[in-house]
Amino acid sequence: MSKAATILDHYDLRKTKCREDVLRFFISNAELALSQQEIFYHLQQHYDRATLYRTLKAFDEKGMIHRVNLAGSETKYALDQAVLKEKDRFQSHIHFQCEKCEKTVCLSEFPIYEPSLPAGYEKTKSEFLITGTCKECNSTA
Questions:
Q1: SS3 per-residue string spanning 71-139
Q2: Of the four listed, 67, 116, 122, 124, which is most buried by Cβ atoms within 10 Å?
Q3: Half-sphere exposure of 49 (CA within 13 A, CB side)
Q4: Does residue 14 have a pLDDT over 90?
Q5: In this structure, are residues 48 and 54 in contact, taking their beta carbons and an 8 Å threshold?
Q6: Alpha carbon distance 69, 72 (integer Å)
Q7: Helices 17-28 & 36-43 angle (0-180, nearest 10)
Q8: Secondary structure of residue 3 in the 3-state scheme
Q9: What is the pLDDT of residue 12?
Q10: pLDDT digits over 29-42, tens only?
Q11: How far is CA 104 from CA 29, 38, 48, 68, in A?
Q12: How far are the Cα atoms of 88, 118, 123 from residue 127, in angstroms, in the given order?
């Protein structure tokens, strides 16, 4: 059984060719957050937008991917690193967006430690985005 098929089993998702292909694409780009457009561009010869959207929605609902909301930009999706380890625990972490090449990278090795909130406050989500120049763009400067 392929790694993608094993992961789909772990998350109780039906194995379809589209789900396996999208998951393989995420795995091969595990450090990046990808837009729907980027995913569609690489898989458009095989699947239509609606099928890809439903696949992303299923992965999001199962917690396999997480959304990265960028100010003034489209939402991107990143594979939760726990998926690769076949664990169910999502760890909040820093995202970095390069201002030159516009890549968005998950910096999973830098977790976000959740602060305690005052009584009466309830957190729904934490996001931490750093913008600047990535190491690839810095090395070509």
A1: CCCCCEEEECHHHHCCCCCCCCEEEEEECCCCCEEEEEEEECCCCCCCCCCCCCCCCCEEEECCHHHHH
A2: 67
A3: 4
A4: yes
A5: no
A6: 9
A7: 120
A8: helix
A9: 93
A10: 988 889 889 999 99
A11: 11, 12, 24, 9
A12: 19, 19, 11
At 70, list the tokens: 């960028």
CB 95 within 8 A of CB 105: yes
Q: H/E element holding 35?
A: strand 32-35
Quote the CA–CA distance of 87 and 97 in Å, as a whole number: 26
The partner residues of 68 in beta bridges, in order of sequence, read: 76
In CATH, the number for domain 3-140 is 1.10.10.10
Q: What is the pLDDT of residue 141?
A: 58
User: What pLDDT shows up at residue 81?
Assistant: 75
Look up residue 41 and give its two tokens: 């561009």
The two beta strands, 129-132 and 93-98, are parallel
Burial of 23 by CB count in 10 Å (0-12 exposed, 13-18 middle, 19+ buried)? buried
